[in-house]
Amino acid sequence: MSQVEKKTGLLRRTSSSKKPLKEKVVLMYDEIFAKEDPAKNNPRFWDELFLMKVNLEYLETKLETVDGEEVQKIQDNINSLFHHCVQALGEEHQIKVVNALQTLCALFRGVHQKNKSASGFDIINMLMGFDKAEQRMKDLMERLDSLLCGEGSESLKSLCLKLLLCLVTVTDNISQNTILEYVMINSIFEAILQILSDVSSRGQHGYDAVVLLALLVNYRKYESVNPYIVKLSIVDDEPTLDGMGMVVHHALTEYNRQYKDKEEENQGGFFSTLTSMVGSMFIADADEKLSVQTNEAILLALYEAVHLNRNFITVLAQSHPEMDIPTTPTTLTPTTPTTPLGTTPPSLDMMNNPELPLDPNLQTSNLLITFLKYASIVMQDTKDEHRLNSARLCLIILTCIAEDQYADAFLHDDNMNFRVNLHRMPMRHRKKAVDKNIPSRPLVCAVLDLMVEFIVTHMMKDFPMDLYLRCVQIIHKLLCYQKKCRIRLHYTWRELWSALINLLKFLLSNETTLLSKHNIFHLALLVVNLFNMFITYGDTFLPTSNSYDELYYEIVRMHQVFDNLYCMVLRVSTNTGQWKEPASKVTHALVNVRAIVNHFNPKIESYASVNHISQLSEEQVLEVVRSNYDTLTLKLQDGLDQFERYSEQPKEAAFFKELVRSISLNVRKNVSLNTLSQGVLLKEFSTIS
User: Fold this and answer.
1) pTM of the predicted model, to two decimals?
2) Beta strand segments in 373-440, E
């Protein structure tokens, strides 16, 4: 059968001279698109329609091809179809409910597709009649709520969520979808929470419920009071919050598993042999090959939960056994015939079992660890727009976490140690870390490792300035907490100092190129002030006095970088130009670093001269440092332990607007009700009267 025949719902050609026959449901659709009331000559028209298997493609295509003048003539029939769809949702006959849900989806999509330039009010008028819209949508939302919260079929619940996702994503910009005003008034928030709090429902529908909630929260969030934002911010029911966390956790775990599988696949065979033969020529290709589709929708849900609800912070730390979801999950009888959006569904057995038997030899995990592993993957390659958005969102989430006092408390808790295997970008000059060598440490160490890893691996021409700023600010916020609570963290601080100094070196080497696009002085100031934090307050949070000595050793050892930075900012600040003021701030910030260099360098040279040593060892330099603290004079700098708290509006508003648009397009593409197996649905309900 040709494509044209498929679209018009033709059944077969009996002979070359005869017209092809049409399905009965297609003939009934044609009656709706005629001028007269289809029920005029057939009072049972609507009852019969919803007993027919829906032809979604034909109905949508028909709606999209109706001319402007024709729309006015058939509007009453379209309104009537919408009204009878809503009524059919209350029917006991389940096949009618299934067909009504699918027809509604076709209506929403077809009318919006045809009238992309039309106002929201015109679309509402065409679908349901503006004067009756409030009542129609109230009835629709009540019936969907009833279906979602009832004891009925899981397939119907899945279909209801698909319809809602379809409705929410019919416009590219979610905030221009005027119909959602009725979804704000007639909230389904409680129905979503019920799905998340119930173990069985969560396993079947948790993913779609969480994505739906994340999208609804972003409807006109900066323009008016969004009830979903208000309600999400005050949820304190533990099972509900745990359920939301579990859905996010399993979606991210599945992503991590897929990446790990691809990584292991690429470590063997011809590709691995070839790379070992020719060095690291193909590292970029390996990254390309290891790319797994990112999941911004689930990440957005995690962000909204962390950002809006302080109670959700406790969910991040909930420990449970770390278990890999099997690569080939057990085949289950599909109650929900569709695959969740943008990801392979997590194993239902895993989703349904919040309590799992503990093995004393089994490493425990939590949502935060899974998230950090996810972030370590997506932050490796930020050249792709989706991965760049994911990396940025990961850093925004970590910013919110680093600012939260409770989150900081469990991040630094010495009684909560974990072995976190972060993914590291392949680089020529270092070997791949062996998992077993990773020590068990407080979670803040993994966060710092992630920041250091990013700093070290992204010094490139297409410099991701925004991500670097966020990384350095996250480190600063963690240090502020450590200083405030006098927490002496046993961490390899030298790796951080080395990474920061190399970053300054990179900025200096690429000054001209970077200044054409970025204010490098702002980043340089943040980095220098991190050193000032260590210099001024390090004695309150560095683990030992030896750590403080090592800080001075690193500054003196790498003094050339700081000297060059000072020369550069002095040059720029003494000339007129747009960078005069920001460069001047860096000049002032360097005062203590320069004092250390200028104080200890002559002492070290003198020590070498007196002892006739051409090159001092590290221990000898440290000895000079320890014996000359008393004569060092430093200036007290104000505000080093202060920071600007994260605020989404106005700084991040444009980013989230574009992110939600991208997620909405992806959800719309994936929520195709044509992928719902109508055969499975109809078979399930064929025995129900």
Assistant:
1) 0.87
2) 417-418
